[in-house]
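Dig into what follows:
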Amino acid sequence: GRETVAGVYAAVKHFLNGGAEATQLMAEYIAAELNGISGIAVRLDKPASHVHLQFASLSTSTRDDVKKQLFEGEPRVLVRNSGPSGIRVNAGTLAEGQERTVAERLKTILTEF
């Protein structure tokens, strides 16, 4: 349909205008900001521009609490599950500058646990 064509066009345009590199830089920024938080293992998936956070001692219920706080807070941040008790941030869904907000929100919430 037209929506699919428009989506593919937007993705190709984003890629050709240097969007892939910008997205990777945003993911690298988030990973760097979260590195060093006790009990959190940070892994950067460069090709996908995803930041995976694995919690050493946190359960899935705690992961769900983190996701809920991120989603219900201001501004709202949506993350996905990663592994049995981790979360994944997709930098490809962020506009330029939002990586700072996401990293700050995550730092604030993760240092409470």
About this structure: DSSP finds four helices and four strands in the chain. The chain has a mean pLDDT of 84.
